[in-house]
Structure formats: structure tokens, C-alpha cells
């Protein structure tokens, strides 16, 4: 409460609030006339919305208060309720924060984990793996700021202040496309995405069953299953995890590498969008934002380790298959069939087996972390 004592107006607000409380007590003792006389005209709610001036902050010697003030000031300056001061975040998480001016980078570290942030960019590196933030690290007045969703979904779980993962016993694997939907293709190599995804999913299912999980695929043969039906199937089975397997393609034949998607948090822009904001509505799948990130990160990291391909990052998109899930879920893009070299790799059983192993490793690690936490 000390914040209220440093500025005259705020302090008066505090007095008004006290009188208001006295007034309320009076009502209970039926002395109604005093309530009418009490100076309740400035309701205490206004006090809370007041923000200390910059001078107040300079005078403040109290680090804890200063953090709160930095966040408040930042929100006032930017008009952005979701802006969070990077320094304040680091303090809250008890993480070390370093700036590298020449590289225009910041590094947060704690207990062997590091997050490298780039100034004016949404791209960050978590223990060397590329991750897309919802908001760029940007300077507002005297402070560098990040977004609230990135703090909640990435920084807090990574630097150990919140548990995100729940127990896993049933896993639903979703081989992308099928039936009349071929997905992407490389005609010269004769590669159809729907065949590649089914093959990887069957292999993955074998690995997971061996490890003791109950595994169900959304399709076991070449048939069309609606996107909503895939999520419904997982929900009906009370799945603990959902992984959709895909391969990529692009008009630019040079494009290659691996990327893993989670559902974009409510009100935030997807990774492919440069516009701020996005669907404000929270989908059922958004209940698991932090777990979705954890799973996507583990899968991306494991795919890179097993396959050694280019890191295109952990990204966010509002994929329909992820929106209505009742459990954590992600969508993995396991290589570009449109790229000559990668397409050739994808067409080999050896590559697809390594994809399956990588996905299995990641799911096992994810499930193990839930056991450690519980
Ligand atoms: Zn696909």
C-alpha cells in the first residue's frame, strides 16, 4: 500500500477510501445520516487507476515497488494493458538479465536455461531453439517491454514459477489430410502429404504404445476426416494430448525446415501476421496455452535434434484442428515436400522413422515432466 503514500492526491484518495469504509460501517449501525455526509464522492476505485509520476519513481528506493511502478508507467505510456517491463519480469522471476548493446540482444537466464531476446523483434531463442513471441521486445519511454501472454505462457513456466503440465495416458495422433485431400505434394517425386503423415503417425503410435500409452489415430487409412471431427474424437476419448502430423510446402522452392505450431493466445497476433491483435475470443484450446507451448517446444527441439534440419521456430496459428481441443495439442510441420532435397528425404522411410522417433521422444519427455511435477 505504500504506493499510495508517496503522492498527495493518492494519499487523499486513501483518506477518502477510509472514510468510505467508516460510512459503510455506519450504515450497519443504522446511522444513515452520516453516510450521506461522508465524502464518498471520489470512489476508491479511482485511486487504483492512478499512476505514480516518473519523479516519484526516481525517489523510490524500494525495488519491489519500483517493479510494480515500471509496469504501471509502461501501461500508461503505451496505453497497452498487456505491456510488461522486461526488468520487472526478470525481478519477479528472480532471473538474471543482461543486455548486449552491440548485438541488440537481451539475455534472461536462470538455473541453466536461457532466453535470448532481440530488440524490436518477435523472434527469441529459448536454449537455442527459435520461438515466436506474441509481442516484440520494444522500448517504450525508459523501459523495454514484453507482452503479458509471453510472460505467462513462456517466461513463467520456463523460469520455474508455475507448473503447466498434467498427467498423460491417452494420446491422439492426427495424420494430416486424407481421402480426397492430398495435402501438399511433390509431383516429380510422387510424394503426397496424406500418405507421409499416415506413415509417420503409424510409426509414432507403435513407439508410444511400447512406452505404455494408450494411442488412438484420427484415421488409420486413406479417408477424409473433418477438422472439427478430429478434435471431437480427441475430446470424446478424453485424450490427454493431441499431436497433428503434417508436411509443408511453399511456392518458394528454397523454403525448408521444421516448425511446430500451437494455438495463438486470445487477442494476440498469429506468427504469420505483422498486425497487432487478433481474435479476442479464447477458444477451448486456449485453456492450455502454457502446456501447448511446452509441448510444441519439446517437439520442435526433438525434431531438430533427430533430423538436423533448419529451425523455422515454435510458431502460433489459429488452426481449426487445435481450436476446440479439451487437452493440450500442437501441429508439427515435419519438413517441406516442395523443396527438392527435403522432399527427397521425406520420401524415404528412414527419414519418416526419425520423425516418428523424435515425436515419441518429445511426448515421453513431456509426460515425464508431468510426473516429476505431480
Ligand atoms: Zn498439411
UniProtKB/TrEMBL annotation:
<dbReference type="GO" id="GO:0030288">
    <property type="term" value="C:outer membrane-bounded periplasmic space"/>
</dbReference>
<dbReference type="GO" id="GO:0009253">
    <property type="term" value="P:peptidoglycan catabolic process"/>
</dbReference>
<feature type="domain" description="MurNAc-LAA">
    <location>
        <begin position="231"/>
        <end position="364"/>
    </location>
</feature>
<dbReference type="GO" id="GO:0008745">
    <property type="term" value="F:N-acetylmuramoyl-L-alanine amidase activity"/>
</dbReference>
<keyword id="KW-0378">Hydrolase</keyword>
<protein>
    <recommendedName>
        <fullName>N-acetylmuramoyl-L-alanine amidase</fullName>
        <ecNumber>3.5.1.28</ecNumber>
    </recommendedName>
</protein>
<dbReference type="InterPro" id="IPR050695">
    <property type="entry name" value="N-acetylmuramoyl_amidase_3"/>
</dbReference>
<dbReference type="InterPro" id="IPR002508">
    <property type="entry name" value="MurNAc-LAA_cat"/>
</dbReference>
<dbReference type="Pfam" id="PF01520">
    <property type="entry name" value="Amidase_3"/>
</dbReference>
Amino acid at each position: 500500500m505504500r504506493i499510495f503514500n508517496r503522492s498527495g492526491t493518492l494519499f487523499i484518495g486513501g483518506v477518502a477510501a477510509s472514510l468510505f469504509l467508516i460510512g459503510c460501517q455506519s450504515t450497519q449501525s443504522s446511522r444513515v445520516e452520516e453516510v450521506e455526509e461522508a465524502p464518498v464522492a471520489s470512489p476508491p476505485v479511482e485511486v487504483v487507476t492512478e499512476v505514480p509520476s516518473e519523479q516519484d519513481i526516481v525517489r523510490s528506493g524500494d525495488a519491489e515497488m519500483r517493479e510494480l511502478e515500471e509496469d504501471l508507467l509502461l501501461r500508461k505510456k503505451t496505453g497497452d494493458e498487456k505491456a510488461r517491463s522486461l526488468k520487472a519480469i526478470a525481478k519477479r522471476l528472480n532471473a538474471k538479465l543482461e543486455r548486449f548493446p552491440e548485438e541488440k540482444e537481451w539475455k534472461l537466464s536462470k538455473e541453466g536455461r536461457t532466453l535470448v531476446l532481440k530488440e524490436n523483434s518477435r523472434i527469441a531463442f529459448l536454449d537455442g531453439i527459435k520461438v515466436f513471441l506474441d509481442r516484440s521486445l520494444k522500448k517504450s519511454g525508459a523501459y523495454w517491454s514484453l507482452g503479458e501472454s509471453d510472460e505467462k505462457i513462456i517466461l513463467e513456466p520456463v523460469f520455474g514459477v508455475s507448473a503447466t503440465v498434467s498427467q498423460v495416458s491417452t494420446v491422439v495422433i492426427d495424420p494430416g489430410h486424407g481421402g480426397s485431400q492430398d495435402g501438399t505434394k511433390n509431383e516429380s517425386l510422387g510424394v503426397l502429404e496424406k500418405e507421409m503423415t499416415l506413415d509417420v503417425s503409424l510409426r509414432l503410435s507403435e513407439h508410444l504404445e511400447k512406452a505404455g500409452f494408450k494411442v488412438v489415430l484420427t484415421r488409420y487409412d486413406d479417408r477424409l476426416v473433418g477438422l472439427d471431427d478430429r478434435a471431437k474424437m480427441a475430446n470424446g476419448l478424453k485424450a490427454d494430448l493431441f499431436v497433428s502430423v503434417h508436411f509443408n510446402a511453399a511456392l518458394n522452392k528454397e523454403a525448408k525446415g521444421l516448425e511446430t505450431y500451437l494455438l495463438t493466445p486470445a487477442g494476440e497476433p498469429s506468427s504469420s501476421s505483422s498486425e497487432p491483435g487478433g481474435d479476442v475470443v479464447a477458444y477451448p484450446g486456449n485453456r492450455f496455452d502454457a502446456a501447448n507451448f511446452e509441448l510444441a517446444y519439446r517437439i520442435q527441439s526433438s525434431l531438430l535434434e533427430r533430423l538436423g534440419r533448419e529451425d523455422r521456430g515454435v510458431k502460433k496459428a489459429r488452426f481449426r484442428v487445435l481450436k476446440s481441443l479439451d487437452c493440450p495439442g500442437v501441429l508439427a510441420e515435419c519438413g517441406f515436400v516442395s523443396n527438392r532435397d527435403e522432399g527427397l528425404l521425406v520420401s524415404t522411410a528412414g527419414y519418416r522413422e526419425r520423425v516418428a522417433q523424435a515425436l515419441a521422444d518429445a511426448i515421453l519427455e513431456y509426460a515425464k515432466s508431468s510426473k516429476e511435477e505431480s
